[in-house]
Design a protein that fits this description.
The protein is an alpha/beta fold and 225 residues long. It contains seven helices and ten strands. The chain folds into two domains: 151 residues, Alpha/beta knot, CATH 3.40.1280; 56 residues, Orthogonal Bundle (Trp Operon Repressor, Chain A), CATH 1.10.1270.
């Protein structure tokens, strides 16, 4: 699976993709992440990629031409299953979307900046628009890193324990149950006895009960869905 990420701040994405699971996925050859500097496709000497909005208003808008040049150049090299724009007014990222995208092949992710990008890029090229929540960040780089992480960890072979991702929160529509590790007692705080019993059936039932209870308390909206 290949991710081509277009941004005006490529250095901002250096660290997220160079550590932990994302680094491991790339070293194993299970995922390829390539970050492209949008300014390389600017047509002016200053390498600027933004301009004032038509109709007035505050902020600057990312121009259509640099994005179009970059996208069309990449499309000559390979076919993309999705061209995704990270935007606050997109569909909210959830586990179901991550699961679906993990079955795709090549993906391109566009990172906006300033006030946003020319609408024509969204109309002509973008196949899916995704938000990571109802708030605004300075740009789409961090959301792109979050989306990439959410997808790559689901690729078979990326996680050391391939069943781990299947038990994550939201995979079955519920939050995960509480988890514990050694020591069994710390400063008078004990691990629930059931988890030390070795009875797999009872442990599984306890976890199911805890998942439901935690979801009722913290995210009742998930049960309504």
């Amino acid at each position: 699976m290949r991710f081509d990420i277009i941004t005006v701040l490529p250095d901002l994405l250096t660290s997220p993709f160079a550590h932990s699971i994302l680094q491991r996925a790339q070293k194993k050859g299970l995922a390829e992440i390539v970050v492209h500097n949008l300014r390389d496709y600017a047509s002016n000497k200053q390498k600027s990629v933004d301009d004032y909005p038509y109709g007035g208003g505050s902020g600057m808008v990312m121009q259509i031409e640099p994005f179009a040049k970059c996208i069309e150049h990449l499309q000559t090299e390979r076919k993309y299953d999705e061209i995704i724009f990270m935007t606050p007014d997109g569909e909210t990222l959830n586990q179901e979307i991550a699961n679906t995208l993990s079955t795709r092949g090549n993906m391109m992710i566009l990172c906006g900046h300033y006030k946003g990008i020319d609408q024509r890029i969204r109309d002509i090229f973008v196949t899916r628009e995704i938000s990571i929540g109802d708030y605004v960040l300075s740009g789409g780089e961090l959301p792109a890193a979050i989306l990439t992480d959410a997808i790559i960890r689901l690729i078979p072979g990326v996680l050391s324990d391939e069943t781990s991702a299947l038990s994550d929160s939201f995979q079955d529509g519920l939050l995960d149950a509480p988890i514990y590790t050694r020591p069994a007692e710390w400063n008078g705080h004990k691990v629930p006895e059931i988890l030390l019993s070795g009875n797999e059936a009872k442990i599984s039932a306890w976890r199911d009960e805890q998942q439901l209870q935690r979801t009722k308390e913290r995210r009742p909206d998930l049960l309504n869905e």
